[in-house]
Amino acid sequence: MEAGDDDTASERNCILYAISVTYVLCFIFSCVFKNSQIQANLQKVLKRITHCSKLCGLPLRFRFRFLNIERSYWKLKSDECETAIEELKKQNDSVAAALAKLDRQVKLKEGQIVQLRSRQREIHEKCELEQLKLPTVNDPMDTGSSSQELVLDYSQLSEIYLKEVQLSDRDKLEAEFKQKIGILMAEIERTAPNLKALDQYEALQTKEKEVSEKFEAARKEEREVADKYNSVKQRRYELFMEAFDHISKGIDKIYKQLTKSHTHPLGGTAYLNLENEDEPFLHGIKYTAMPPTKRFRDMEQLSGGEKTVAALALLFAIHSFRPSPFFILDEVDAALDNLNVAKVAGFIRSKSCERAGEEQDGDGGCGFQSIVISLKDSFYDKAEALVGVYRDSERSCSRTLTFDLTKYKEA
Fold it and tell me: Right CATH number for 242-322 from 3.30.43.10, 3.40.50.1000, 3.40.50.280, 3.40.50.300?
């Protein structure tokens, strides 16, 4: 039994050794051969060998060897993948650099195209100024096409000019063109003179003289008109400033008379300001009125009665500069209280009674007559005469009544 067991063990070891050798050879072949079909077949053989080794009870050390071999295999595969990735990265960087270079070249060419188009437009404009006709593909009668849309007809050039000209040939072409220009200039000099040119020149010279005389006459007329305009403008400014200075000086006195009382003997304050003193007609005039005991505020913030008193002060100040024969006031006391009504009525009476037609007085105004329409007795009882208007119902018409108050003494 012992001899038989030894033989069996030896045979088993031989089989395991053969399996190990076969496994190693398959692994080596799978690493060497790059063909996908061969590698797939070798992988199948390796799987079968692994399965057989498990059935035969392969020792643990051989299994570890197999695992180490497999690990080496996959490590080698990983290295190959990393190498391939690095190679692809290099190729990608190379392609990106090539694309960047091409992009720079494209931008450079685009800039050159823009410069050439600009040069083409300059040449075309110069040819138009010199009345040189260029061969174009466009319809010559099409006057609506711009110089940018002009398409030149290069087919009329000789073949030598249609070919790409090298830098070394430019000097030759330039010399050739200069020679042709010289020949053409010589032909022009040899051309017979135009006998009518002198007559045409004299006619044009006479016409130029007439136009120059008309131009000088128009320039002289323009200077005269400009001087008249400046004179009128200066006169307008002087008249305006004369009126403004007079009104601005008198408005404060008149406003004080309309607003002063026993409790406020000084009255309020009013003044005018120009928004633009150099050019007063380009801007407005600021009117400020401050009633007694009140601070400065805009005219819009005053009450209705305060605005009425301020407006009457401005009206009387304007009237004092160019007095009219009389005033017609229509219910100017509508927004006034009894105190202000009495003040306005007293001021109008002080300027009206026995002063019509007088010169400037000492209170900032001149005498005038006034016709006032009012519904308040505290206003019209200061008048010299009353005129009442009423409706006659029987005759369907209006009637008037007059009443002379000068015949009665004041209470």
Answer: 3.40.50.300
